[in-house]
Specification:
heterodimer, A: 124 residues, alpha+beta, five-stranded antiparallel β-sheet, 3 helices, 5 strands, elongated, B: 184 residues
Chain lengths: 124, 184
Amino acid sequence: MRLFPALLFIAAVSVITGGCAFVRGTYGEEVKPLDISSIKKGITTRAEVATLLGAPERIVEVNGHEIFHYFHYDMKSGLLLIFSRTNLMSEDVFVFFDGNGIVQDIVAGKKKPVPKMQFWPFGD
Amino acid sequence: MDRIRVSSQISLLVLCLSMVLSGCMRGPIMWQRVTVNQPITPDQITFIQEGKTSLSEVANELGTPDEIVIDSDESGRLLLKELRSTRSVRGGVVRNQDRPTIRNQIKKRLVARYHFSDSKYLRIDFGWGLRFVIPFYSPEMLLGGGGSATDVFEVACDSQLVVQETSFAFRQSFSQFKLWPFGD
């Protein structure tokens, strides 16, 4: 006799939680701080940067600067019954070269926070 | 004894069906939201001194920008547009509005952009309950709507990557859950 309510409870839980999904995805390879620290301004060449960090996702030409753009996306998505929220965070690194193909500057700021796993779509 | 067995079998069947079909259950109402990155507020950029602060210093405080473009005729439209707009007209807020914004002065600058995108969508299916009345045909009668908007913070730099100018465009208020798709 105790089996019946127990099974009903499991059925109810499975129906309620059946409408839930938690998903995580990433795009691109994360650039490691150690690799960035081994790039020296005024010394490291374009080819050495490509060896260290790999081929850039994008190459931008701005005012005679060649810029290697590396990016990495991290996504977390939560769905619970009728609420769904997806948070996406990008992490970028820019390496600037002078006309001779030598690193002029590196723009790799503080690491952005990891996106939150949320399902509540209201508020901040 | 038989009665207990039958009720157990029924409950087992209900359990199996609910576990198999629960993934097909989509609620009659759905609130959805997608955000990309995090917002930057004017309070966070008070450390920037135009003509002194470098782009690397900005990145150390705010994180690396999402995009770097040349502020030429092709890619500088947004900055130029925002520099000329005001909060009352488009919801944009601009620092140093009194600064002359002649195209030649900001032409050929390098512009670093930070984006925060927020998209909201609300949907109600008024036909959802009919699946319990008409098992083989459940029509969808949907009303839904929403909005998507992107806040932009732009940092214009000279060739030495020193900040020359900054501007904000706040449009997040345009991102709203909207149920009624008709009207203006």
